[in-house]
Specification:
By secondary structure, the protein is α/β, with parallel strands linked by helices. It has 2 domains: 6-121 and 294-311, Nucleotidyltransferase, domain 5 (2-Layer Sandwich); 129-289, Nucleotidyltransferase, domain 5. It contains 12 helices and 13 strands. The chain has helices at 41-61, 99-107, 116-127, 187-190, 192-202, 211-219, 223-247, 257-260, 263-274, 279-282, 295-302, 304-311, and strands at 6-12, 16-23, 28-35, 66-73, 75-78, 83-87, 95-97, 110-115, 136-141, 145-151, 154-155, 251-255, 286-289. The chain has a 5-stranded mixed beta sheet. A 5-stranded mixed beta sheet has the order 11-10-9-12-13, sandwiched between helices. Strands 5-6-7 form a 3-stranded antiparallel beta sheet, with helices on one face. The two termini are 23 Å apart. The structure holds zinc ion (ZN).
Length: 315
C-alpha cells in the first residue's frame, strides 16, 4: 500500500457509521459498518472508537501500521479544533462535541475531523472525477444540500471552517423560510426533501412521496412530477451559475443521493446552466457526477492527514 502506511477513514452519518483502511493509493480494504447509536454522544463516541480499534486490529494482522484516523461527518465542523459545532440532528446531543480530541484520547491515534462534503471533494480530486483539478465546486444533493469549494488547489475554509454552505445560498428572496433561518435557500427547492414536499403539495397530500419516487415518476412521464423536477433543476441552475460566477471552477461536481445514479438529471442541469449567465465563464465548466460512490467518504476521510500537510492546514 505504499511507504506511507495506511490510514483509517470513518464516515459518520446520522444512521450509519462506516470505517475502512485506506492506502496512500486510495485502495480501500477491511470495510466495516454498523448503525449509528441514537442514544447520545457517549454511545456514539464508544461505537466510533470501538470500530476504529476493530479496523486497526485487522490492519495489524496484515502487518500494516495505521498512521491516523480521519472522520468525515455532517454539520458545521470547526476543522482547526476538530469540534462538531452543530452536527446532524439525527444524533441526539451532538452539538459542541470535541470529536478529534475524544477519538485521539481513546485510540492514541492522530485524528482529523472534517465536514463530509470537503472529504468527498478531496477523494474525487485525488482519485475520482476531479483528478488533478485545482478548481472544483462540489454540490451534494440528497436529503439536504452540502457544498465544498477547491480553489487554486486549496479548500476554501473561511474563518473557522464553516465556508461553502452552498445549500444555503438564496435563490429566491421571496422564497420559503429555511430551517437555517434564511429565506429561499437552494436546499428549500432542490433537495430530495424539498422535491418530495413540493410533490405532496401539488397532489394535495394524496400519498407520501420520497424524492427518489418523484424523480422516477418524472422519468416515467408523470406530468406533475415533471413539473416538480423541472422547478428543482431551475433552482439548481440558478445556484450553480452563481457559484460559477463566484469561483470560476473548471469542474462542477455533483454528488449525493439525487445525482449518484441519475445521468439524465446531470444532462438536464448542464443544458440549463449552459444557456445562462456570463457565457465566457459558464461554457468552459465541466459538469460531472462523482465517480467513487460511497467509498469517497471513507477515502477522503482517511486522506485528511496527507491533505492537511499538502494544504498547510491543521498540522
Ligand atoms: Zn438555509
Amino acid at each position: 500500500m505504499g511507504d506511507d502506511g495506511v490510514d483509517i477513514g470513518v464516515d459518520l452519518g446520522g444512521t450509519k457509521l462506516a470505517a475502512a483502511l485506506v492506502g496512500a493509493d486510495g485502495r480501500v480494504s477491511e470495510r466495516v459498518s454498523r448503525s449509528t447509536p441514537q442514544t447520545g454522544r457517549d454511545d456514539v463516541l464508544d461505537a466510533l472508537t470501538e470500530t476504529v480499534r476493530h479496523v486497526r486490529q485487522r490492519a495489524s494482522k496484515h502487518g500494516l501500521v495505521v498512521q491516523s484516523v480521519g472522520i468525515g461527518t455532517a454539520g458545521q465542523i470547526d476543522v482547526v479544533r476538530g469540534v462538531v459545532l452543530a452536527g446532524t440532528t439525527n444524533i441526539h446531543d451532538w452539538n459542541n462535541v470535541p470529536l478529534r480530541d475524544a477519538v485521539a484520547a481513546a485510540t492514541g491515534l492522530t485524528t482529523f475531523v472534517d465536514n463530509d462534503v470537503p472529504v468527498v471533494l478531496q477523494a474525487e480530486r485525488e482519485f475520482g472525477a476531479a483528478q488533478g483539478c485545482t478548481d472544483v465546486v462540489c454540490l451534494t444533493v440528497g436529503t439536504g444540500i452540502g457544498g465544498a469549494v477547491l480553489t487554486g488547489g486549496r479548500l476554501l475554509r473561511g474563518a473557522w471552517g464553516g465556508a461553502a454552505e452552498l445549500g444555503h445560498i438564496s435563490v429566491d428572496k421571496h422564497g420559503p423560510v429555511c430551517a437555517c433561518g434564511f429565506r429561499g435557500c437552494l436546499e428549500m427547492f432542490a433537495s430530495g426533501t424539498a422535491v418530495a414536499r413540493r410533490m405532496a403539495e401539488l397532489t394535495h397530500g394524496d400519498r407520501k412521496w420520497t424524492g427518489v419516487e418523484v424523480f422516477q415518476a418524472a422519468l416515467c412521464g408523470d406530468a406533475l412530477a415533471e413539473q416538480v423536477v423541472s422547478e428543482a433543476i431551475d433552482a439548481l441552475a440558478y445556484g450553480v451559475v452563481s457559484l460559477i460566477h463566484t469561483f470560476n471552477p473548471k469542474i462542477m461536481l455533483l454528488g449525493g443521493g439525487v445525482f449518484s445514479e441519475a445521468e439524465w438529471l446531470r444532462e438536464r442541469l448542464e443544458n440549463k446552466v449552459h444557456g445562462m449567465g456570463i457565457q465566457s465563464m459558464v461554457q468552459s465548466v465541466h459538469i460531472r457526477r462523482v465517480s467513487l460512490g460511497t467509498d469517497a467518504g471513507l477515502i477522503g476521510a482517511a486522506r485528511l492527514r496527507a491533505m492537511s500537510t499538502m494544504n498547510g492546514e491543521l498540522s
